[in-house]
Write a structure and sequence with these properties.
CATH class of the largest domain in chain A: Alpha Beta
CATH superfamily of the largest domain in chain A: Zn peptidases
Strand content of chain A: 15-25%
Shape of chain A: elongated
Structural class of chain A: alpha/beta
Number of domains of chain A: 3
Radius of gyration of chain A: 25 Å
Largest sheet of chain A: 8 strands, mixed
Oligomer: homotrimer
Distance between the termini of chain A: 22 Å
Number of strands of chain A: 19
Largest interface: A-B, 19 and 24 residues
CATH topology of the largest domain in chain A: Aminopeptidase
C-alpha cells in the first residue's frame, strides 16, 4: 500500500473525528516553550504515534541562543479585598502572562494596572501574551473585565517558578526507501489556542500515523517543538541531518474557515513550492500563495541563510491576519471540521506528489509510439475505458526527455498530477517509459 | 531576384487564382493515407512543381510503426430493396469510412445502423471518419438522411481492397546558398475536404513554385505526406537530413475566415517562433499564438523529444475548433480567397524574415557614426527621402554588437523587420555594418 | 560627514535659491556647441565649483567625427526699408539660427522667407533651430511676427564667423575612497532655454559643490559638454577612464512641472537603473521609467555598443514631449522651484543609494541571532525606540548571504533603502554583519 492507495481508501470522516478528539484533549493544557504542559502534550501525542521525547537542559547553547530556564506554573490569581478571585488562572490559562516570574503582593488598582493587558477593540476576548526573555509578570483579561474592576486593594499571586530544567520536544522518524527526508514541523508551545496551533499538531500527528502504515519512498521526520527556540535547538542538534532534507513543511493554523495559504520557501521555486502550488491550483477552491518573508513561524529558522532549506509554511489564514489570533477566541468553536479535513487532504495530496514525482526517459523518443497496438489509444471514453487520459499520455511521452519531472509535465500540460502519474504508470508498464534513477 | 523583390513584384490576385484553381482540381479526389487518390494528388501537384514521388512498401518498419497495406476503393453503396443507392460513394467520397474493408451483404436497418455515422447536431452535414488501424467498415451520412431510412432489407457493398502496396509521398527540394534547410510540411491524405488540407497544399505548392525562381539563402524542402504515418515515415528515412533543418512550418487549414493562429514549436523560442510572431504582430490584424502541445498535425512528430525540431504550425482556425472541421461542410465554399491570400502573404513574410535575418557587427561601435556626412541623416521625410528610417538606423547601429539579429533588433525597437532590414542594408553599403558569417 | 548626513542637514530652500540664481545668471548667454558663449558659461560655473576648462582644437578627429570650426556671433538682424530692426538678435538669441554663416544682403520678403522659421501652431513662440553641419543661415521668429511682415526690401545681416578655434568643455573630478567613478553629464550648448538644459546644469553644479564637501566612497566626475559632439569628444579623449565608470547619469530637463522620468541604460538592469527605480518607487509621486532607445541626449554615446556604459538619463518631461521644448517658451517662468528641488532631492537619494549599497555577510547565518540580548528587538515603536525597523533587520540578516546587496534586499522586502541601510548599520555594529570588500 502506497500513498495513492491510502488516499483512495482512507475514511476521511473518521480521520477528522480523530483530529477533533486530539484537539479537544490538548486544548485545556497550559503549554509554554518549556515545562510540564509541553511534556503532557507530547504524552498525549504518544497515544497516537510512538514519538521520542528529547530533553535539552537549560543553559545549553544553541547557536546564538541559550535554552532558557524551565517555567512551572501552579496557580495565579488576583483577589479583591473580599477574597474573590477576580482574575483566575484556573478559569483560563491565558489569564497569566506566559513565563511570568512568581509574585505575591498587595496592590492598589493603579499599581496593578501596568501589569494588566486587554484588547479594547475586542472587549470580550482575553489576549495571549508571553515574556520569555524578560523577567516580568502580568495578567491578561477581557477589556470588560478590566473596566469593571473597582478601586480596591488587590492580592496578586503568581505561583510560578523559573528553574534550571529542560526544553522538551517530540520527534518521530519514519524511515523510507531512501534516507532523503521530508520534514514536517509544528510548534506546540501555545496554551489554550486551538487554531494556532492544535490544528497543525493534529494534522501532523494524523499524517504521521497513516504514513507509518504504508510504503514510503522518502523518510519522514515529524517534529513537535516550541516555536523559535525549539527549531533553533533542533537544528543545532541535528546539523548532520539537515543535508538529507529534500522537502519540508511547517504546519500551522489549519483549522480556521479561511482559504488555504501557502508561504513559499526562501528559494521560491523548490519542488515543495511547486508541489503545494499544483495541489492548490487543482483544488477547485480559492487559495493564496505568498512569497517567503523572514517572519511568521519556524520557517524563519529553516530558511535562515546558513540552512536555506526547501521548507514552506502551509496554513489557512496566516498569523495576525484573523482577529481571533492570539486571543481566547481562538477556541474549539473557531476551528471547523471541514477546514481540518480540507487541510489534511491537501497535505496528503502534496505528499503524494512528492512521493510519486519522478523523471522518466521516453524509450521511443523519435516520433510518437503507436499507442493503438498496445491497447492504449482511445482508451478513454470508450466502453472499455482504462481511465487513462490519452492526452496525458502524449504529454508525458513528449516531455519525458530526462529534463522534465512528472510535476513539471503536469504543470506545463495543465493536467492534474494524478492524471499524468496514471499515464506514466501505463506507459512504463508498456515499456515506453523508464524512470531515471 | 530575392524574396524581398518577389514580395514587391508578385501579382497576388493572380497567385490566389492559381491557388483556387489547384484546390478545385484536387477537391473531388478520394484520398487516403495510401493509394491511388494520394498518387493522383501528387501528379496534379507535379503540373506545378517538379516534385519527386517516393513509394515506401507496405510492411516497412518506420520507428515504432509499420507502413500499412494500401487501400483501394472502387465503389461503395447501400441500396434499398428497390435497388436505389440510398448512400452512394459516387456522390461523396466522405460516405465511406476511409480504409473500410470490403463487404457485400444484405442487412436489416437495425443491423446496418452500427455501421452508420452521422452528426445529430449538424443534420445536413456528412462526417468524415477513418479506421486506418482497425479492420472494420462503415458509412457516413447526414443525420437527416439517416432519419429518413425506412425499415427495409439493404444491400451493402464496399468494393475496396487492402493489399500490400505502397505509402506514397511527394518531396521537392530547392537547394540554396547554404545546405541549412527550411522544412515546409503538409498532409495530403484527406479526401474531399477543402480547408483541411487543400488550403495548406495549395499554399505550399505556390510558395515552392515562386521560391524556385529566386535566389535562396536557405535550402527548402517541401513535403506532401499522409498525416502521422507520413511524417513518421519521412523522418525514419531521412534521419541524416534532420540536423540540417533550421526552421520549419506545418501548413494546414489556411483558407477559412478565422484569424491566423500560430502554434509554437516545442522549443517555444526558436527563430521560426519569433519570426511568425513578428509577422503576426505587424500584420495589423487579430491573431492568436498558442503554445506547443503534443496533438494537432505532424508537428507532433517533428517535435517528438528525439527530434525536437524548430517546427511550428501555421493555421487559421485550429483543427476541431471550427464546426465544419472533418465534415462535408469543409467544402469549396468554406474557404475564402482573401483568407488564402492573407495566409500566403504572411508565409512569404515569415520566409522573408528567415532569409534576411542576420547578425551584424557595427564597424564604428564607439559613439554614433556621423550619418550626415554619408547622406543618411534626415533621409526620411525630406523631399529627397531615401525611405530609410533614421531611428531604425540608430537602433540597428546600437544593437549590432554581434549579439542581436535583425529580428531581435526589430522586436526590441518595435520597428517592422523590413524597416530594420532596409536600414541595415544602407548601413552595410556605407561600410558601417558588416555581417557576421 | 557622508551623503546621509548631507541629506539630513542640507537647507533645501537655500539650495533651490542657489540653483535659481545660477539659472538666471546663465539664461541670457548665447551658447552654441563651440564659442565664447560656452566659455562664459563655464566661467560662471567656476564661481561655484573649481572645474577645469578643456579646449579641443577645430579639426581634431574624434572617432567618426571632426571637431567643427568655432562659431562667433556678434550681431544679427533683419531691417525693413525704414531701418527698423524687425528681427533682432539683441532681443533674443533664439532669433538667429545657431551656427549661421555670415550674411549681409538685401532681399525681398519672398526671397527672405525660405530663411525664416516659425511655429504656426504656437504663434507667439520663437523656435530654436541649429545648423551645425550644413553651411546655411536663417532667422527664427514668432509666427505672428512673420505674418506681420509686409512686402518690403529687407536688409539682412548676420555678423558671425566660423573660424578654426576650439570646442570647450568643463570637467570637475572629485576623488573618492575608490577610483571607481560616478559620471554626471549634462549638455550646456543651448542658448536661452531654461529647462533644456540650464536646469540640468544647475542641479549638476549644486550636486558637485555639496559632494565636494563630504566623504565620498566613489570618485565623481562632472562634465559640462556640448551635446553629441561633446560627449563624443570627451569619450574619444578619455578611453582609458571609461573602465572606471561604475554608474552614470545624464541630467536634463529637470525643472519643468511634469513628473520624473528615468530612461534606463542600454543594459537595462545596471545598478544605476535599479537605484533610480528604487528612489522613484519610494518617492510617493508619479513617475515614469522608459527603456533605453538610441535617441535623446548624450546617453546615446555613452551607451553606444563599443562603450555600453551603465549610464541612464534622469529628466522630468522628456525631450520633444512638452510643447515648450526648443522654443522661447522654455524660459525662466517655465521651470518651477519645487520641481528643481524635487529633482535635486531625488538625485541626492540616488547617489546615497550608490554610496551606501554594499553586500554583507551574515556572521550568524544558522538560524536568527537573538536580537533581544543585543537590545535590537522590539526596538521600534517602543518609547526608547532606536528607529531601527525590526522587520528590516530580519530581512537584512536573512538575505545577507553574500549574494544580495542592500538595494536588492530593499527591493525584495519592499522596504526603503534607508531603512535597510539603518538596519544593516545596527547589525554591523552588533557584529552580526560584515561587509564584503
Amino acid at each position: 500500500m502506497n500513498i495513492s492507495d491510502l488516499r483512495q481508501t482512507l475514511d476521511l470522516a473518521q480521520t477528522v473525528q480523530e483530529m477533533e478528539f486530539l484537539v479537544r484533549a490538548l486544548y485545556p493544557i497550559c503549554r509554554s516553550i518549556t515545562g510540564e504542559g509541553f511534556r503532557q502534550t507530547l504524552q498525549i501525542l504518544q497515544t497516537q504515534i510512538p514519538l521520542t521525547q528529547h530533553q535539552v537542559p537549560s543553559g545549553t547553547q544553541v547557536f546564538d541562543w541559550t535554552v532558557p530556564r524551565e517555567w512551572t506554573i501552579r496557580d495565579a490569581y488576583v483577589k479583591n479585598s473580599q477574597g474573590d478571585r477576580v482574575i483566575d488562572f484556573q478559569r483560563s490559562n491565558l489569564h497569566v502572562v506566559n513565563y511570568s516570574i512568581p509574585v505575591h503582593t498587595k496592590l492598589s488598582l493603579q499599581d496593578l494596572k501596568p501589569h494588566l493587558f486587554s484588547l479594547p477593540d475586542r472587549p470580550d476576548w482575553i489576549p495571549y501574551r508571553t515574556s520569555y526573555y524578560k523577567d516580568t509578570w502580568g495578567f491578561c483579561l477581557s477589556h470588560n473585565q478590566l473596566l469593571a474592576l473597582p478601586e480596591d486593594e488587590y492580592e496578586v499571586r503568581i505561583d510560578s517558578s523559573l528553574e534550571p530544567g529542560y526544553l522538551s520536544y517530540g520527534e518521530y522518524y519514519l524511515p523510507g526507501e531512501t534516507p532523503e527526508e521530508v520534514l514536517i514541523s509544528c510548534h506546540a508551545c501555545h496554551p489554550s489556542l486551538a487554531n494556532d496551533n492544535l490544528s497543525g499538531i493534529a494534522i501532523a500527528t494524523t499524517l504521521a500515523k497513516h504514513l507509518s502504515e504504508i510504503h514510503r519512498r522518502y523518510s519522514y521526520r515529524f517534529i513537535f517543538i516550541p516555536a523559535t527556540i525549539g527549531s533553533i535547538t533542533w537544528l543545532s542538534r541535528n546539523e548532520e541531518i539537515v543535508d538529507r532534507i529534500r522537502h519540508g513543511l511547517v504546519l500551522s493554523c489549519l483549522g480556521d474557515p479561511g482559504h488555504s495559504t501557502y508561504k513559499k520557501s526562501r528559494r521560491g521555486d523548490a519542488e515543495i513550492d511547486r508541489a503545494v502550488l499544483h495541489i492548490l491550483q487543482h483544488s477547485g477552491k480559492d487559495y493564496k500563495v505568498i512569497d517567503f518573508s523572514p517572519y511568521g513561524y519556524d520557517e524563519r529558522q529553516y530558511c535562515s541563510p546558513g540552512f536555506n532549506l526547501p521548507v514552506g509554511c502551509f496554513m489557512r489564514t496566516p498569523n495576525s491576519q484573523f482577529p481571533e489570533y492570539h486571543t481566547s477566541a481562538d477556541n474549539l468553536e473557531f476551528i471547523q471540521p471541514w477546514a481540518l479535513q480540507d487541510s489534511f487532504t491537501k497535505c496528503l495530496g502534496v505528499l503524494s506528489v512528492l512521493e510519486h514525482n519522478k523523471t522518466y526517459l521516453n524509450q521511443n523518443p523519435k516520433c510518437e509510439p503507436q499507442l493503438g497496438k498496445r491497447g492504449l489509444y482511445r482508451a478513454v471514453g470508450g466502453p472499455a475505458g482504462t481511465g487513462i487520459n490519452e492526452m496525458a499520455m502524449l504529454w508525458t511521452l513528449n516531455l519525458s526527455d530526462g529534463l522534465h519531472s512528472l510535476l513539471e509535465i503536469a504543470d506545463r500540460s495543465g493536467y492534474a498530477f494524478d492524471a499524468i502519474k496514471k499515464a506514466a504508470d501505463a506507459l512504463e508498464e508498456a515499456g515506453l517509459l523508464k524512470a531515471l534513477s
